[in-house]
Amino acid sequence: MAFWMGSAVGLAAINLALLSILGSIWLSNYRKFGTNLLLGLLLFAGVLGAENVIAIGAYLSTGMVYGGGRTAMYAVVALRGLQFLALVFLTAVTAK
Q1: What domain range includes position 85?
Q2: Do residues 77 and 9 touch, judged by C-beta distance below 8 A?
């Protein structure tokens, strides 16, 4: 069980790193162009980043996430993995 929850926390930490990269690019572009779209992307990165910080904090403070059941554990890892893939795609097209 610890392996899967550790994997979820690791993916959340990687997601935070990707969101930091995206946020810095979007902030730079927002300062240049000042469009509402970029402001929305910055807010998106902030909210998603906060969600990942809360997930990591919940795991570190309790040693478990969502009650620690096997099904919930697998679902959390799957969702963090899907979030990771989405952020990799978004980072790849943004950083071009």
Answers
A1: 2-94
A2: no
pLDDT digits (tens, 9 = 90+) for 73-87: 888 899 999 999 999
Q: How many folded domains does the chain comprise?
A: 1
Angle between helix axes 2-33 and 70-94 (nearest 10 degrees) is 30
Residue with token string 């909210």: 47
Angle (CA) 72-77-81 rounded to 5° is 145
What are 6-58's pLDDT values in tens digits?
898 999 999 999 999 999 999 999 999 999 999 999 999 999 999 999 989 98
Q: What is the dihedral sign for C-alpha 62, 79, 83, 2?
A: positive
Gap between the Cα atoms of 55 and 92, Å rounded = 25
Collect all residues with Cβ–Cβ distance below 8 Å to 51 and sequence separation of at least 6.
none
Residue entry with tokens 């509402």: 36
Residue 74, both tokens: 């697998």
